[in-house]
UniProtKB/TrEMBL annotation:
Binding of ATP, residues: K76
Region Disordered: start-end pairs: 1-48
GO BP terms, alphabetized: regulation of signal transduction; Wnt signaling pathway
Activity regulation info: Activated by threonine and tyrosine phosphorylation.
UniProt keyword annotations, A-Z: ATP-binding, Cytoplasm, Kinase, Magnesium, Metal-binding, Nucleotide-binding, Nucleus, Phosphoprotein, Serine/threonine-protein kinase, Transcription, Transcription regulation, Transferase, Wnt signaling pathway
Name of the molecule in the record: Mitogen-activated protein kinase
Length: 434
């Protein structure tokens, strides 16, 4: 069971510090564990971007080589950080989340590039693991997608989601493009640009500008002011159906049509399921003709749409979020037993083999060891204060770790990297204005 990474342009040139730059004797050649004098400040190792590999909700991702160990990693530039307090908070939240995550199915920060002096500090660069492809590319490719693939992918999506939700984090943009995969089918949830901490107070309003439309839960489409982690489970249901049918389940042109396609499948929801919907959305549903559910069409998605698969799918695609299955409960569904077995037999890092057989972990789907805290946001009242907090966070995060990394700004690749970042940022902000 293997996947090929999508074909990519060849990697350009020397990815070690610009060949014209003076070699840095303190860095990559020092053997691991070489004791360093405490007063000696290491010069940072320089790295160059080599090619773009993707675009998140906010920011561009490039492939780079870590000059300290020659390992290929992903470099994400977080742009426009200090434009205003909102972007400052958003980026700091994403940064702290990436440093908080410790789970094999959730992308985390391996390192953060050394920031310059605070007066020149404008951008943040984060290093994460480099993955070969994502589920969107896999779904639209001609590569075969067997039931075994679907089970092991869905298992890992839910395993990662259980971890996020147990930390009190809503992802809010689960879609195939945000599920990175490797050729060995390892999957990691990425892009936390829209993620936030769960809001326990139902009277507090939450933004509606979340989730790519095709994967957006009915309660968000209906304008509910408050929603929970079940919006992510809805998205996973849509992706499960997309993996089975290899086409987007609800591919609508507008949010209203999105809602219409959902009710075509699930039937007109009862009034109780629309209790917190906005008046306009409720009126739209009630104005239309009463629709019966037509869930049996899910059996026609593909041969893989067995009774078990459709049963689980129907538990995720529930209109009323209070009645929708949780990510954690979905993991107990028998459809995922084979995916769990496959994952822990040959893919995971939590179990291991001894001559007499496999030693399995005690908890196949571990929750987070503590909730993600966002209390630090309360002390962020201005952009300058935010800048100081972020600068201190990065500096403290790096203390006692490996030789710090920085970018070689003289390299031609870096200039292209900067240009593509600027180009994409303007595209994103235009989209946001609509
Ligand atoms: Zn395991």
């Amino acid at each position: 069971m293997a996947f090929h990474g999508s074909s990519r342009p060849t990697v350009c040139g020397n990815i070690f510090p610009g060949s014209d730059a003076t070699p840095n004797p303190t860095v990559p050649n020092a053997p691991a564990g070489t004791p360093r004098h405490p007063a000696e400040v290491p010069s940072p190792a320089e790295m160059e971007p080599d090619r773009p590999i993707g675009y998140g909700a906010f920011g561009v991702v490039w492939s780079v080589t870590d000059p300290r160990d020659g390992r290929k990693v992903a470099l994400k530039k977080m742009p426009n950080v200090f434009q205003n307090l909102v972007s400052c908070k958003r980026v700091f939240r994403e940064l702290r989340m990436l440093c908080f995550f410790k789970h094999d199915n959730v992308l985390s920060a391996l390192d953060i590039l050394q920031p310059p002096q605070i007066d020149c500090f404008e951008e943040i660069y984060v290093i994460t693991e480099l993955m070969q492809s994502d589920l969107h590319k896999v779904i639209v490719s001609p590569q075969p997608l067997t039931t075994d693939h679907i089970k092991v992918f869905l298992y890992q999506i839910l395993r990662g989601l259980k971890y996020l939700h147990s930390a009190g984090i809503l992802h809010r943009d689960i879609k195939p493009g945000n599920l990175l995969v490797n050729s060995n089918c390892l999957l990691k949830i990425c892009d936390f640009g829209l993620a936030r901490v769960e809001e326990p107070d139902p009277s507090r309003h939450m933004t509606q500008e979340v989730v790519t439309q095709y994967y957006r839960a009915p309660e968000v489409l209906m304008g509910c002011q408050h929603y929970t982690s079940s919006i992510d489970v809805w998205s996973v249901g849509c992706i499960f159906a997309e993996l089975l049918g290899r086409r987007i389940l609800f591919q609508a042109q507008s949010p209203i049509q999105q809602l219409d396609l959902i009710t075509d499948l699930l039937g007109t929801p009862p009034l109780s399921a629309m209790a917190s919907a906005c008046e306009g959305a409720r009126a739209h549903i009630l104005r239309g003709t009463h629709k019966p559910p037509s869930l049996s069409v899910l059996y026609m998605l593909s041969d893989g749409a067995t009774h078990e698969a459709v049963h689980l799918l129907c538990r995720m695609l529930v209109f009323d979020p209070a009645k929708r299955i949780s990510g954690s409960d979905a993991l107990s569904h028998p459809y995922l037993d084979e995916g769990r077995l496959r994952y822990h037999t040959c893919m995971c890092k939590c179990c291991y083999s001894v001559p007499s057989g496999r030693v399995y972990t005690r908890d196949f789907e571990p929750p987070a060891d503590r909730p993600f805290s966002h209390n630090y946001e309360q002390s962020m009242h201005s952009v300058w204060q935010g800048k100081e907090l972020i600068h201190r966070f990065i500096t403290e995060h790096q203390q006692g770790k490996r030789v710090p990394l920085c970018i070689n700004p003289q390299s031609a690749a870096f200039k292209t990297f900067i240009r593509s970042t600027a180009w994409h940022s303007s595209k994103v902000s235009r989209k946001e204005e609509r």
